[in-house]
Design a protein that fits this description.
By secondary structure, the chain is mainly α.
């Protein structure tokens, strides 16, 4: 099962099953997977997933519904749940949701392979974002271009993260 951490370090499991899908559809009017002939004909899940990607509030409400039982066990209300999601936690939560939706729709024999592919896709996306951030630092002339390129190559090769390869002090800093 895919999971994400909020800003307080709590781990939330994202479960996608028929009961959860029906609860989401009933409460939020969102069709995450086309389960009926009507949904398939209207391509509801496709349009609802597009709508979800452009609506932060709706996506946080969806995540709350999917994590509601855990929230009740931890005495965390919907507003408190939303307040513990910064952009990183929110992005991680959506990645976990995407992974679970991918696995849910796969035939039983390929579920584990699908989960592995979804994780790899998320890792690659994270590396691309980190590389873009590093190149942004380079553009601001805080780190030499050669250092940034070396760090990007190291990240892509899977040998560490951007933060583990950053210099201990940047030009113009006092540390």
């Amino acid at each position: 099962m895919a999971s994400f951490k909020d800003t307080q370090g709590r781990v939330w499991d994202v479960a996608v099953n028929l009961g959860q899908l029906m609860k989401v559809k009933s409460r939020l009017g969102l069709c995450l997977v086309d389960l009926s002939a009507e949904d398939v004909a209207a391509k509801r899940s496709e349009s609802d997933l597009k709508r979800l990607s452009g609506d932060v509030e709706l996506s946080i409400n969806l995540l709350y519904v999917l994590c509601e039982k855990q929230c009740q066990e931890r005495d965390v209300g919907d507003e408190a749940f939303g307040l513990t999601l910064d952009l990183d936690a929110w992005a991680d939560a959506l990645a976990a949701l995407k992974e679970e939706l991918t696995v849910f729709t796969l035939p039983r024999t390929t579920k584990e392979r699908g989960r592995e592919l979804a994780r790899k896709q998320n890792e690659i996306a994270a590396k691309v974002l980190a590389a873009e951030a590093l190149r942004s630092i380079e553009a601001e002339e805080l780190v030499p271009a050669a250092t940034v390129e070396a760090m990007v190559r190291q990240m892509i090769a899977g040998n560490g993260s951007a933060s583990s390869t950053l210099p201990t002090s940047l030009p113009g800093s006092s540390g």
